[in-house]
UniProtKB/TrEMBL annotation:
Entry-linked Pfam families: HATPase_c_4
Organism for this UniProt entry: Lactobacillus intestinalis DSM 6629
Gene3D superfamilies referenced in this protein's UniProt entry, alphabetically: 3.30.565.60, Winged helix-like DNA-binding domain superfamily/Winged helix DNA-binding domain
InterPro entries: RecG_C_sf (IPR038475), WH-like_DNA-bd_sf (IPR036388)
Protein name per the record: Transcriptional regulator
Position of the signal peptide: none
């Protein structure tokens, strides 16, 4: 493996990852010495059958477990063998398997959801964890069914609609974004990795962490240009019951939720060294975050809201739009300079050509640019 100071022998885990990433379909591999009737949680299979029946046709409910599992691709024939025996796929085991059966193939399999009362807390108030005594038979399907209602119910619509912003879509948009992020996390995870799938649910944001780096760029993901699913079997099982779509719709929905409701931009961190992907979806806008960090007077609140709306602005235009509501030119400029000192705003240019805008990281600037492009595409 190439490192900063030369070549190093690959570890066993690195070789496994390279081999897995060389294949388009990771989780369709067939398992030896696993039996569907003893290694799968048939209660989950039955629940899935009922949901499938509502979407496709009622006949699927009347099928036997074996027929259903064959029909949806969980059981497949090994074409390299003359035997017509059908074997369990790795994706089928992850999706429907009993916890200890999954651990026999994926010894580091771990799914975790934790909710916190405050952003800075380390002690959780609610948790769903695979293998825990409360969830002894956790698999991908049961984890999704348990966690989705918890995620989507923990959205406080605390915003008050004002004359400039319309927040009627806030809760619905965030629920859609959270669902997409959860499904994305489970479909794209590298289950042979060394870390757990982790979902943090805090008052201001959700953070979804999964092993495996993203197979497409940030821009491609957020704009929905291309989708390369790591676990096609899991993706298909979700899609059959209407939970996911084949086209790359997850990123645009996450982006749309932030853009339509003027929320802080979603953050995507791809750690190529440790093979980890993190997606943070904010539930709050920039003004709310700044409100939590410092005390703002009415003039500063106006300036920040103005910066959110205008992207960049000149002092003269902003002062004109204030319409003498916040005092003299020197008073307003003093509050503007205070926000510059606190690095809430940054300035560009000199003299009368100076413009101001919100301070953002390079990653936030990139996402902001993508959001503008996506809005232009939708308007066109």
């Amino acid at each position: 493996m190439r490192t900063d100071d030369g070549d190093r022998f690959a570890t066993h885990d690195q070789l496994k990852y390279l081999y897995a990433e060389s294949q388009d379909q990771v989780d369709t591999r067939l398992l030896k010495n696993f039996d569907w009737d003893s290694d799968l949680n048939l209660e989950d299979v039955n629940d899935y059958s009922k949901k499938l029946g509502k979407i496709e046709d009622a006949d699927s409910v009347s099928k036997s477990d074996y027929e259903l599992l064959t029909d949806i691709g969980v059981l497949r024939r090994d074409r390299r063998s003359s035997s017509k025996e059908r074997k369990l796929t790795e994706g089928g085991l992850l999706f429907f398997g009993k916890f200890m059966s999954i651990m026999d193939r994926f010894p580091r399999f771990q799914l975790d959801y934790t909710r916190y009362a405050r952003d800075g807390d380390t002690d959780w108030v609610d948790r769903v964890s695979a293998g825990d005594m409360n969830y002894p038979e956790m698999n991908v399907y049961s984890f999704y069914n348990l966690v989705l209602p918890k995620i989507t119910s923990n959205i406080n619509d605390k915003y008050v609609q004002d004359e400039d912003l319309t927040r009627g879509s806030y809760v619905a948009d965030l629920r859609s974004a959270a669902k997409e992020a959860l499904v994305n996390c489970l479909m794209h995870a590298y289950y042979d990795g060394t870390i757990a799938i982790q979902i943090e649910d805090r008052p201001s944001y959700w953070e979804f962490t999964n092993p495996g780096d993203m197979r497409v760029s940030r821009e491609s993901f957020l704009r929905g240009q291309k989708s390369e699913v790591r676990n096609s079997e899991i993706a298909t099982l979700f899609r059959r019951i209407g939970i996911s779509e084949k086209r790359a719709s997850g990123g645009p929905r996450i982006l749309r939720a932030a853009s339509r409701n003027h929320l802080m931009e979603p953050e995507i961190e791809i750690d190529a060294t440790n093979k980890i992907t993190k997606i943070r979806i904010w539930k709050i806008d920039i003004r709310t975050k700044i409100d939590d960090e410092m005390i703002l007077d009415p003039t500063e609140k106006f300036i920040i809201d103005y910066a959110i709306q205008k992207s960049e602005f000149s002092f003269s235009q902003m002062f004109k739009d204030m319409n003498n509501r916040f005092g003299s030119n020197s008073t307003v400029r003093k509050r503007l300079n205070h926000l510059l000192d606190k690095k809430v705003l940054v300035s560009e240019g000199n003299g009368k050509s100076t413009v101001y805008k919100l301070e953002k990281t390079s990653e936030q600037e990139q996402v902001d640019r993508i959001m503008r492009l996506k809005n232009m595409e939708e308007n066109l």
